[in-house]
Specification:
Number of strands: 16
Strand content: over 45%
Mean pLDDT: 76
Order of helices and strands: EEEEEEEEEEEEEEEEH
Helix content: under 10%
Low-confidence stretches: 1-24
Number of helices: 1
Structural class: mainly beta
Length: 206
């Protein structure tokens, strides 16, 4: 699985929590999550057995990585500096790809830090402290960059971004950056960049 590690693209979304952790939750209706494949960033090869690459913590106890491990509410998943991992939703609902040095919490999914590529089928919402993104079937890239900045790029479909003061619809091939409750107007992204991320999503999720 080849990752587009030469792309510097991110997507911005909501207001993020204090303590310097960006928090974003992705709610897939009635989804149970399970661990997918882990691999070395930028390469097709799986990780060496000596390099776990992925840390799974449940109620303060670290669990060994296992593909298809069923995840529970409150589980923490994080990646090392050279690894990626896929987390699948239930059935055909889709999944997310965590890039190096990213972390999520399972409940729905909360992106605590780092970059995540998601492909979701069916209606779902992405939430943060001040912004809700409502979609129905989409591919998007999101990165929690700083305590008040999240960057969102829509690769396929459309996402409605709404804070308490603003609401914008981000359509395919566009990007929006939110700083606090201020949601930026969508801007076009270079089509070659969008296509590169679309190709990566198809490689990972199809």
């Amino acid at each position: 699985m080849k990752l587009a590690n030469n792309l510097n693209v991110i997507l911005t979304c909501p207001r993020i929590a204090a303590i310097g952790l960006a928090i974003l939750s992705l709610a897939l209706s009635n989804c149970a999550y399970r661990m997918g494949e882990r691999f070395a960033y930028g390469h097709a090869r799986p990780l060496e057995p000596s390099n776990p690459g992925v840390k799974i913590t449940r109620q303060g106890r670290e669990l060994p990585y296992a593909q298809d491990l069923r995840l529970e509410q409150g589980d923490l998943i994080s990646t090392s500096s050279d690894s990626c991992v896929v987390v699948w939703g239930k059935g055909s609902s889709g999944g997310v790809l965590l890039y190096p040095q990213a972390g999520i919490e399972i409940g729905s999914i909360r992106l605590l830090f780092g970059k995540m590529l998601a492909k979701v089928r069916g209606a779902f919402q992405v939430k943060s402290h001040s912004v809700t993104a409502s979609v129905e079937g989409t591919i998007f890239l999101i990165e929690a960059k700083r305590a008040d900045v999240v960057d969102l790029m829509v690769i396929e479909g459309a996402v409605r971004f709404a804070s308490v003061t603003q609401s914008v619809v981000v359509t395919e091939g566009n990007r929006s950056i939110a700083r606090g409750t201020q949601v930026g107007q969508p801007v076009r992204v270079d089509p070659r960049v969008v296509q590169a991320w679309r190709d990566q999503a198809r490689t990972v999720f199809n």
